[in-house]
Amino acid sequence: MSAFAIVRDVFDGENSAKIYGIINGMLALSPILGPIIGVALITRYPWYSTFYFLACLSILTGLVFKVWGKESLDKANRTGFSWSIFSRYMIIIKSIHFWSFTLPAVAGMSSFFALFSITPYIIESLGLPKVTIVYSFGTVGLSFMLGSF
Q1: Which of 11, 29, 99, 108 suits 46 as a labelling partner, its CA being 20 to 30 A distant?
Q2: 12's torsion region: left (phi>0), alpha (psi -120 to 50) or beta?
């Protein structure tokens, strides 16, 4: 996620925490907009049209970054590669402070993706209309977004 690296390069302290919260909130748009776009596509086109849509969106995103993207870290603050960076990971891995934030985040995101993975199956097995997926995902995504902000 290059957005998080850019925030780290450009902001610091409390400002970066605010920006990270906004980015997490924006990430919640995918479970809100994704099902709406997906249902709209598969009701008009074959099921694989969603994959064409995602491929086109990826190409468009790549072109936008190629044309307008720039390095966010000043040249003066850049450092060359050093193998010592791997020793720093051990310091982080041993930190209880790191794990106290990481494990709840991992649990939350894992349950988030598990819910999104199984929801279409549950809705289909219950015989509910496809629009129900939009409401199901949208409600969870909206909750996640509000929590992030």
Answers
A1: 29
A2: beta
